[in-house]
Every structure is written in C-alpha cells, then in structure tokens.
Amino acid sequence: MYEGLLSILHKEVKPALGCTGPTSVSYAASVAKDAVGGEVKSVKVFVDRDTYKNSIAVGIPGTSEMGVVIAAALGAVCGDSTLGLEVLKNVTKEDEEKAKTLAEHNVSLEINWDIEGVGLYIDVWVDTDLGTGHAIVAKTHTNVILIEANNEIKYKVKEDEIKNILDETKDIIAGYTVKDFYDFATKMPIEELNFLKESINMNKELAETGLEKGSGKGFGEAFLKLQKTQSAFFKAKAYTAAASDARMAGENLPAMSCASSGNVGITASLPLYIVALENGINEDILIRALSLSFLMTIYIKNHIGRLSAMCACAIAASIGVGTGTVILFEGSFSQVEGAVKNIVGSIGGVLCDGAKLGCALKLSSAVGIAIESAYMALDNTVIASGDGIVCDTADETIKMLGRIARLGMIETDKVLCKEIIQREQNSKRYN
C-alpha cells in the first residue's frame, strides 16, 4: 500500500513552468510538431471549454503574451516536448516574435463544448514543410493518447483501454481512504519522502520573486502589510499569494505542481513551510505533513475532477493544507478528519472561474480557512456530522463533495465557461 502511495506522489508532484492550462496546449502542439519535424506553417487547435477558460488570462513564461493561441504557436515553434510541463523552458525573444507572427496569421482555435467526463482534452494539428503532425492530450496535462505523422499512427491508446484510462473513478488513488494517507504520512520512512523538500525550495523561490518584484497585482505584498508582526497565519497567506502573483504574471520560474496544477502545488505546500518555520517545527515533521497534504489534494481532485466548476485550490489544496497542519502539531487521525469537515463545511463549492491574476486572492483565502480549520480541529472544535454536506466521516464527506462537483455542477460549468468566454471574445481582451 505504501509503495503505491509513494508512486502516486512521484508521478503527481512535478515541476511546471507557467500556468498548466496554456502549458498543456503548448505541450500538445510540441508533440504534434515533433511527430513530423520541419518548419511550422500553421497550427489548428481544438480545446475543451475548461482548458480555454483556464488559459486566457495568464502570462506565458518568458514572454509578454497571454492566451491559448500564442501558447499553441510557442509550443509548435520552440516547445521541447521532452520537458513535459516545462515545455517552454528554453523560449527566447526570437522564438516569441516568430510565434507571434504565426499566431496572428496561421493559428486557428476552436472550443469543443461537448467534451464531458474526461477532464482536459486538447487536439492539435501542426502543418510543416515536411507534412502534418497530430496529437491528442487528454485527462491530464501531459497524457498523450494519440500521435500521428502524415496520417500514420505513431502511438495510440487501444480502444478497449481508453475508457478506463480517461475515467478518473478508475484511478488508483480512488481505492484508498483518508486513514491510509494519514498512516502513510506518519509511518513511511522519512528518507523515502525527502524528495518532497524540493517542492518547498521551488515554490518558495517563486513566492520570493513575487514579493520582490511585485508581480501581477501584488496581493502577496499586500498581505504582508496587513500585519506588522507577520504572524504565521498572514505570512502563509502572503507567500502563497505572492507565488501565485509571480506565476500568473508569467515569471520565468517553475512551480512544483500537484495533480497537474502549479497553483494547487503552491497552495498545498508553501503554507505548511511557513507554519513550520514560524513555530520551530523540525523538517522531518514538515515533510510528513507535505506528504499528507499532497495525497489529500490528489484524492480530492480525483473526486471533484481534474477540471471542474469547483476550485481545486480552494477545496482540494486547502484540505491538503488543513490536514497537513494537523500533522505539523502531531494531531490525531480524528483531528485530521475534523479539519476536513471544517473546510468542506465552510468553503465547499467555491467556483473556479479560470486561471488569472486574481487567483492569488482566492488561494490566500483558502489558506486562511485551512489553517483556521486545522487549529479548531486541534482544539476538537468540529462542524457536526449532518450539518449541510458534512457527513459522519471524512471519506463520506469527500465523496458527497465529489458527487456535487461531478453531477450537480455540470450545467454550472457550462454556463460559467460560456459567460466568461463570450465576455472575453466580445471585449477582445485575450486570444
């Protein structure tokens, strides 16, 4: 059981450069281009509504641009598909100018409104002087299910496997429980978890860049000014917001992502580092707290969906932080369950209205609720079972939350995406 959970952490906690919405489009374009090689002539992109919504209002690292069209162009022109979520790591100003020219004249974009139940779905065709490359990325941001070169299949997931691969309810993590995660976090040999330290180092550098440069709207800097004493509570909110400020503004630094999201990875890790630092908690306990936070975050995202009308940072990562905070103070499993109930009972159902600069404020709010909820759980103050969507156990509560997100918010997601996309197309603010 422990080896399975360790494998999940290694797979899901990875560096990601830039917002993973447009990054996934760049990645798909780079895979399609690499299938044939040559000089790019044109790009055709089909994306699901949520990927589009999550991509239009965030900066592209290494450039001054925003939007899906430029992301596709950059992926085709200079993307390195071998780098996964760091596909644009080596972009240059010359590459940016070349991609901008391509985007202005030879990149077409279409939103697929009918994709349901498979998470992310990106279908890219790239024409070059050597032919046509075609790639489909589905469910997660680097999960390639088809590669073609000049109508010849180079790679394809078998038809009898595709349903299970794209069905999130069949994911391995769905077979575990919150108690499994707690046991893993508290009993796994610490040397097996030490790789998680890199999530703190990477996301801390992003936060410090946001604070120093006043990236984005400067929400992180603003939080530090709210309280001169810079308590752990406000400092955790500030660092999380600052990292989001920098990332959403397109600073050329990676974040350690979790479950294919950089902002989720930031939210699930940085607050625990600050709380541990401010309270003199040793590194081994911090790493154990990180392991629980990441596993809980992945678990929640599995229930609500990789792409959802429900904000993964506000609900999945906040539950990760809340339960991780309980571990920092060596709380019991009962108190871990209490933190889950407090968070779901207070902010369950927060909407995801796309990746953007304002995410910094939403992330910091989620962090505040998470830490407060953990402190209350440690004091055995917990929302009662049967109160709203809070159930008898943490697992039952999470399952209900998942059903609401997956079944009850489908129309919400459609209306939300339609309203945002139509508004932005009318304003011509983004590509």
Task: Characterize the structure shown.
The chain has 431 residues and is of the alpha+beta class. Helices cover 56% and strands 13% of the residues. The protein has 17 helices and eight strands. The chain has helices at residues 2-12, 20-36, 49-53, 68-78, 93-106, 159-166, 178-187, 197-213, 219-226, 232-248, 262-278, 283-304, 312-328, 333-347, 359-378, 394-408, 410-427, and strands at residues 13-17, 40-48, 107-112, 120-128, 131-139, 144-149, 152-156, 254-258. The strands form two sheets. A six-stranded mixed beta sheet has the order 3-2-4-5-6-7. Strands 1-8 form a two-stranded antiparallel sheet. A hairpin with a 2-residue loop joins β6 (144-149) and β7. α4 (68-78) packs across α5, α12 (283-304) crosses α16 and α13 (312-328) packs parallel to α15. The mean pLDDT is 91.
